[in-house]
Design a protein that fits this description.
Chain lengths: ~280, ~210
Amino acid sequence: MNYLIDILLIALGAALINNFVLYYFVGICPFIGVSRHVGMAVGMGCAVTFVITIAAFIAWTITTFVLMPGAPLTRLAASLFMPAETAARVDLTILSYIVYIFAISSSVQFVEMYVRRFFPLLYKAFGVFLPLITTNCAILFACLTIMSHVVGAENPADRWDLGRALTLAFFGGAGFTIAIVIMAGIREELELCDVPKPFRGAAITLVVGGILAMAFMGFTGVDSGLREAMTAKPAVTETSTSVPAPAPPEEKTLSKAFDFHRVSTPIEGPANILRGESCPG
Amino acid sequence: MADQPTAAERFIQGILPENPVYRQLLGLCPTLAVTNSLMAAVTMAGAVGFVLLCANVIISLIRNLLKPYLRIVVFTLTIATFVTIADRFLAAYLYQMSKTLGPYIPLIIVNCIIICRCEVCASKQSPFVAAADAVGQSLGFGLALSSIAAIREILGTGSLFGLRVMPAVWPDWVIMVLPPGAFLTFGLLLGTINWITARKGGKKIA
């Protein structure tokens, strides 16, 4: 039951509340560049959702089995030439960026070949979008988020499993599609409007994007309300029997880990920053 | 397009005529994401500048060995290496700032500015020109980021670099440090700059 709530909240958070485009600003380039016609926007959205899910699968697998401290495959390999307790502490996370970018670009290549061979119609529909996706930051962002929940989890119970990782990726892609399709719809109408000349193109798109982001801010807080509504009933029976329920950890996973927009207002600690800066030089 | 620009031309072009943010509309993710405080924007520009400089010089040094069909992979792997260095450095010496910037430091890997400069300049010209180009472009990027960040921070929190600059009666306009403020500020600034260039030089810069 708790697991289902988790999945639901991750999905809702990725698609609407913390929308990839309108909250985290990843995938802005296609948002500005490709959102001219609804048809193109839908194609781009589908392609991104498709690739992002595959990339998330690869990223989760590599992180869990190879990269993170004490990962099974690495431990096995390392124990061949070092003592077992040292091998258990081998940490390859420093390589993560290189590994992810390599995994993403190669998976895009494979997806492209596969689609071209078996779904020629789909390939035609995707067109130039597939190779472009390699450098779409939304995909790397999803991989990094998954990594932070796998490697960053303090106790193994909080560690994201494959289901959660795929949910985040798929619904993140869906959120991207929603945003870009809405934007394309607005822009088709904007073509007919008398926009001041300097603002035509990217500038007016950004302003409209701002208004859209404001609208999406209306979803803020939906997740905590929903959680309360769903956990209110079984709380009496469940909390008494077991565990300090996954409620507080989940709160952290969705909001705290990446919540720099709310936490990081500049007032936070200039003193800290300045002190830190005077350290190296 | 007959001759490649010289080092000085590359340097000047990066700052205003070919400003990566306002003219080429590249690297928009960090432009929108980390400009809620000036300090974050400056740090981000510094990180991007470091990665761009190193990547440009390295790519320029090995430009004769590159196979055309492998170049993008080589670019991204080079960039990823330097981003890892920058990320570890920030985590070691500017821990608070690296927390604030969060995933946007690793996202430099897929920042289009760097790939674009590697492709346009570094893979064709000598290391010195490539270095000048990198410095110019990152200065332009830094200026663009700072302009947006300064506006957002002053309007949003009434302070600059965390120090209060607005009078106490100023109501903090919180929306400016939230995501919508980024879109609005950048959109309006971009329009204003288009307007100024259109008035000043006609169609000189297009």
